[in-house]
Amino acid sequence: MQYEIKQQDKFKFIEEGSGETLVLLHGLFGALSNFERLIQYFRPHNKVVVPVLPLLDMDILHTSVGGLAKFVNRFIEARGYNGVHLLGNSLGGHVALVHVLKHPERIKSLILTGSSGLFESGMGDSYPKRGDYDYIKKKTELTFYDPQTATKELVDEVYSVTNNRLKAIKIIALAKSAIRNNLGEELNQIKKPTLLVWGNNDTITPPFVAREFNKLIPNSELCFIDKCGHAPMMEVPDEFNVILHKFLKKLNEPATVT
Hints:
With about 260 residues, the chain is α/β, with parallel strands linked by helices. The chain has one domain (about 5-120, about 180-250): Alpha/Beta hydrolase fold, catalytic domain (Rossmann fold, 3-Layer(aba) Sandwich), CATH 3.40.50. Helices cover about 40% and strands about 15% of the residues. The protein contains nine helices and eight strands. It has helices at about 35-40, 65-80, 90-100, 135-140, 150-160, 165-180, 205-215, 230-235, 235-250; strands at about 5-10, 10-15, 20-25, 45-50, 85-90, 105-115, 195-200, 220-225. An eight-stranded mixed sheet has the order 1-2-4-3-5-6-7-8, sandwiched between helices.
């Protein structure tokens, strides 16, 4: 993906296009490349922003969902974004939820896909021995309906993170923080229009999780995509982009008087 990584103070990010701001937050093993097709599609319509989340660069005390939400808030304030459409996948969705609950004032809408915050099945009960490439490959493939989506490049990326002792400790800290930080009691406080886009074959945050989000977030709508796992914007980008574009356009339609 050939997009310029910009920098302001300690923040690194991609910013492409113009229009209403669409901020994208990736998950625990995610990267900017997860959103390549989404950026490509939306930059003629929106200012598309992808911050580099400091998942493995925060000190261990702040390596948590709350620590990442504070980082996102500082980033949005530093850039002066308003009327933001905030989209998060997996852990990024969880961070988006915490941000909207604490700082709704700059947010116009919320988009969640495969989000944690209620329930998620992570890397498993036992953390693999470092150096177990086949285990990491199988776990990465489980993210997707089609295991072929887990390219060697993607598996190598996940393997390099889990094979580094300090990074592995931080990954575990973030995963545990996500499990502890259950938002079930607070979701009814979210008043922003919310779109839930879920893979029907998501094994990490299964479809029942999406239905629960839909039930608990008052102004939310839910779309399922068949033959799709935990990262719809990577696995079925064309379908995902059409659903998201329709939602964003509808937000800007004048209210009809009945």
